[in-house]
Amino acid sequence: MVADEVRALARRTQLSTENIKQIVDRLVAGSTQSVAAMGHSRVRVEENVAKSASVEQTFDRIAAAIREINQITGQIASATEEQTRTSESITRQTAQLNDFNRETSLIVNQNRERLGHLEAAFGDLQRALTRFREG
């Protein structure tokens, strides 16, 4: 009987050992898969970090371009204001020239009228002088 019990105990020990070996094999396989998955994840994380750095550089270039555009826009606004002031000055000067032209035209017309009066008076004077000499 003792021999049967020893054989039964040996058999159970063998079965337990096989079960433990299977469990250890599954643990080793799972660990190997986990290590491979972590390695793959690490590679993907490194790729994402590189892509993030590239995206950050792109955003930096975009921000610089926006600052430059804002600067150019400010210069355009200043130039536009200067052109507006210049246009307003030209408009005022043109209005003044129109006023001067009207005044000059009025003076010319007055001078023509006076010249006409002077010519008439001169003609009268010449006729009176002629009559005086003849008479």
From TrEMBL:
Residue ranges of every copy of the Methyl-accepting transducer domain listed in the record: 1-98
Keyword Transmembrane helix: yes
Gene3D superfamilies attached to this UniProt entry: Methyl-accepting chemotaxis protein
Subcellular location, principal: membrane
Membrane topology reported for the UniProt record: Multi-pass membrane protein
UniProt entry tagged with the keyword Transmembrane: yes
One Pfam family hit: MCPsignal
GO CC terms in record: membrane
Protein's GO biological process: chemotaxis; signal transduction
Keywords, sorted A to Z: Membrane, Transducer, Transmembrane, Transmembrane helix
The organism's place on the tree of life at top rank: Bacteria
Subcellular location: Membrane
PANTHER family found in the cross-reference section: METHYL-ACCEPTING CHEMOTAXIS PROTEIN CTPL, METHYL-ACCEPTING CHEMOTAXIS PROTEIN MCPB
Name of the protein in question: Methyl-accepting chemotaxis transducer
Organism encoding this protein: Cellvibrio japonicus (strain Ueda107)
Lineage: Bacteria, Pseudomonadati, Pseudomonadota, Gammaproteobacteria, Cellvibrionales
